[in-house]
Structures are given as C-alpha cells and as structure tokens.
C-alpha cells in the first residue's frame, strides 16, 4: 500500500502562503490539511486521517490483530512510503 501526498491548493501572498495537501492511502484520498509550509500541510492531512481512523475504531482492530503488517498502513506517514 502506498501513501502519497498531493498539493491541492496554494494561496495567499508570498510572505504568508497557505498550502493545502491531500494524503492518499492506496490511491484513495484519506485526509486533507492546511499549513503555512508544505510539511505542515502534510502533517495536518495525516492528522486528519489519523483522527478519522480513531473515530471509526480502526485501532481496536489493529490491536486485536497484533501484526506489524496489518498495522503498518496506520503508522505515522512518510512521503512516498511503501507499505
């Protein structure tokens, strides 16, 4: 499963840029976030996805499986990470 980030929008004046990024997990958009740098926006998108997983109790399933392979897609995201 591949995790990728895509710049969706860039706005604001040069001295106060706002970037909006999407995180996709396995080709499906999984979260969106904004920040004053691309890195901040990526982290916000990852947090949005993390929050959604927690609301859906995805992590209860991960704990019950107890395998690194099953948990890997839900661990902290890295740009272009292969899972």
Characteristics of this structure?
83 residues, 36% helix, single chain, four-stranded antiparallel sheet, alpha+beta, 3 helices, 4 strands
Q: Topology, please?
A:
Blueprint: E1 2-11, E2 18-25, E3 28-35, H1 38-55, H2 58-65, H3 68-71, E4 81-82
Antiparallel strand pairs: 1-2, 1-4, 2-3
Q: Your description of this structure?
A:
This protein is of the alpha+beta class. The protein contains three helices and four strands, in the order βββαααβ. It has helices spanning 38-55, 58-65, 68-71; strands spanning 2-11, 18-25, 28-35, 81-82. A four-stranded antiparallel sheet has the order 3-2-1-4, with helices on one face. A hairpin with a 6-residue loop joins β1 (2-11) and β2 (18-25). The termini are close together.
How much helical structure, as a percent, in the residues?
25-40%
Query: Structural class, judged by helices and strands?
Result: alpha+beta
Helix count equals 3
Tell me the overall shape.
elongated
* Relative strand content: 25-35%
Mean pLDDT: 79
Distance between the termini: 5 Å
Q: Stretches where pLDDT falls below 50 for ≥5 residues?
A: none
Cα-atom Rg, whole angstroms?
Answer: 14 Å
Count every beta strand, where a strand is a DSSP E run of 2 or more residues. 4
Order of helices and strands: EEEHHHE
Give the strand order, joined by hyphens, for the main sheet.
3-2-1-4
**Largest sheet entry:** 4 strands, antiparallel
What would a concise description of this structure say?
The protein has 83 residues and is of the alpha+beta class. The protein has three helices and four strands, in the order βββαααβ. The longest helix has 18 residues, at 38-55.
């Amino acid at each position: 499963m591949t995790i990728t980030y895509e710049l969706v929008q860039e706005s604001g004046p040069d001295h106060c840029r706002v970037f909006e990024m999407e995180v996709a997990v396995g080709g499906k958009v999984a979260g969106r976030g904004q920040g004053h740098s691309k890195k901040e926006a990526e982290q916000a998108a990852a947090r949005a996805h993390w929050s959604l997983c927690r609301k859906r109790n995805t992590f209860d399933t991960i704990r019950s499986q107890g395998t690194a392979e099953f948990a890997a897609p839900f661990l902290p995201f890295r740009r272009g990470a292969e899972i």
